Amino acid sequence: MTTPPIPTPPAPPRLKLLSFNIQVGLHTAQYRHYLTRAWRHAVPGRNPHAALDHIAALIRDHDFVAIQEADAGSLRTGFVDQMAYLAAAAGFPQHGLAITRNLRPFARHALGYLSRWPVRVIEEHALPGPIRGRCALQLELQVPGGARALEIFVTHLSLGRATQQRQLDYLVARAGRDQPSVIVGDLNAEPALLRAHPALKAAGFWLPDSPPPTFPSWAPTRSIDHILLSPQVELHRLGTLAQARSDHLPLAAEISIRAA
Description:
By secondary structure, the protein is α+β, with helices and mostly antiparallel strands. It has a single domain, classed as Deoxyribonuclease I, Chain A (4-Layer Sandwich), CATH 3.60.10.10. The protein is built from six helices and eleven strands. The chain has helices spanning 33-36, 48-59, 82-90, 161-174, 191-195, 198-203, and strands at residues 15-21, 64-71, 94-103, 107-115, 119-126, 135-142, 149-156, 181-186, 225-229, 233-240, 251-257. It has a six-stranded mixed beta sheet. A five-stranded mixed beta sheet has the order 5-6-7-8-9, with no helix packed on it. Helix 2 packs across helix 3 (82-90). The longest helix is centred in the middle third of the chain and has 14 residues, at 161-174. The mean pLDDT is 90.
């Protein structure tokens, strides 16, 4: 009697994940633009929608997008809520944001997310630091056909090394030890510093080998935008996308939850 073959379990669904510091849609293509175009951080340009339409076209092929340096609607953007605009323009059914610095009416700094998969906001965290304005969104993403949810921390860390260490300690302490998790965003830190971080190492968070440089976008030499993965998460692809609307390149990855 022939034993029937054991069916091969289906491969876990892959999430197309993108992290993008959009710099409020400013067109920065060289260092002198930080000075000559600084006025655009306070006054809107002629067409505040043009940059957002360009960004929407760039991100629409992804399942989940983590956005840093957006604006929630103020004078400098013509009172356009950039997260809501991108969600509508790129066809994302879910979006959300956290306002990091509210300088209404001139600026409303924010970070946020766009998602095609069902997502639930767990908590908005104000990160430790001497200057208020850094935060993280803790989310739970429901994986299609999967019993396990993916925990995502969308964040933008401070520039100071000591403050970064405290902020990473804070995030790791709130990550589920047995839950697939990722920390994604503009971490303002080089790979060597992240690999040496004690709390990340103890929790098993890992950084892909040779992550691509993302800054500055016109001649990238620094890897400061990252996706940190817990041991339960597998990486299938990592790279950057070309763009001309920010001083950062978008970091694109394809990930899945490892089989138990």
